[in-house]
Amino acid sequence: MTADPRPPTVGIEALDVYGGSAWITAGDLAAGRGLDPGRVTNLMLTGRSVALPFEDPVTHAVNAAKGMLDDLDPAVRDRIELVLVATESGVDYSKSIASYVHRHLQLPAHCRLLEVKQACYAATAALQLAAGHLASGASPGARVLLIATDVGLADERAEYAELATGSGAVALLLSEQPDVLTLDLGAFGLHSFETMDTARPGPDIELADADQSLVAYLECTVRSFADYRRRVADVTLDGTFDHLVFHTPFAGMVRAAHRRAMREFTDLAPAEIAADFSQRVEPGLRYPAEVGNLFSGSLYLALSSLIDSLPVMRDRARVGLFSYGSGCSSEFLSGTLGDGARGAVAARKIGPRLASRRRLDFDEYRELLPENQACLLPRRRHTVGPPPAWFPAPGDRPPLLALRGIDDYHRHYEWI
């Protein structure tokens, strides 16, 4: 047998986002908490998604993937052989969210199912795992479904971090036909170390050291790119990449990371760095500013924002991507946008669906918080009430999976 001399081509074939059914503006939330409006402006946030009582990491994951999968040819859908769910919001210490996802998306029985946890870096770790599987040629034509799904637990104790903590999911279909993004296999840079910048020591506890998290994020930005440059020849931060996409807890943090990296790796003046940020980074910040931090889905939410924001698609536009997860682990990786990227992402109507979310006032938001924070608690029995009166009728929205209750710790869902 003669080996194929061509390098394997793998990456993202399709992607979709579920940004929830409701949101609150950063201004309304800040006013309700009595926070400094000036500091809120520096966060560069519009608002954040808010989970409803019938929404949890499972419903987010399924609702992110369903429309994308429904549009696949049945023969392609049947080639999904690996389902990876990246989350900090696991509903069980043993049973994987991927099992629920597999069931309610009615995926083939011939699937490997796996849940992955490494804070906000988990989806990128799973992406590289999937890329290696696809590039190996072990199962030609196979597809991998990767979903990053989380719910935020932040309340007034988190202070300004509460404004940036979103809920939702991003679904990626990975294959040897990467219409959206072809990965540069072997081109990556890594940097990791142990730190306690954020953590979830319990299912209803979220801890955050904002200063330590910022320091770790900035350090990982420059060190992961330095490692990328060590592995990949003839790379410059300001010349190699047409676009830069970052894990986005909030846009102000990305601006600080971009400035730090550009100062370290280029000779550009401050005004030139600011212009570079506007041109290469800012298009990826629109959706994160409207949804909040989607944890490991944040980087890929930013990627969808970039693609939807491009007025013109450059041939073989190269994208540099920075992924960070608290604790901490980070990676700088890259890829090229496919000719069909704009069409594939636009077909999902991510922006219009985000715009259709119900805007909550502060009192409505505050009433939802107890159930948000309890949704991951192990409960032997629990009943979830119907959607609120303002929730759109089925004819005005696509079907959504909803949590209906818990019986003997087993979660039960139905389509509404």
Automatic annotation (TrEMBL):
What InterPro entries does the record point to? HMG_CoA_synt_C_dom, HMG_CoA_synth_N, Thiolase-like
* Domain called Hydroxymethylglutaryl-coenzyme A synthase C-terminal: residue spans: 275-371
Annotated Hydroxymethylglutaryl-coenzyme A synthase N-terminal domain ranges read 6-175
Pfam families xref list = HMG_CoA_synt_C, HMG_CoA_synt_N
Q: Which SUPFAM superfamilies match?
A: Thiolase-like (SSF53901)
User: What keywords would UniProt list here?
Assistant: Transferase
The answer on whether this UniProt entry bears the keyword Protease reads no
Q: Which family does it belong to?
A: Belongs to the thiolase-like superfamily. HMG-CoA synthase family.
Protein name per Swiss-Prot or TrEMBL: Hydroxymethylglutaryl-CoA synthase
Q: What is the lineage of its organism?
A: Bacteria, Bacillati, Actinomycetota, Actinomycetes, Kitasatosporales
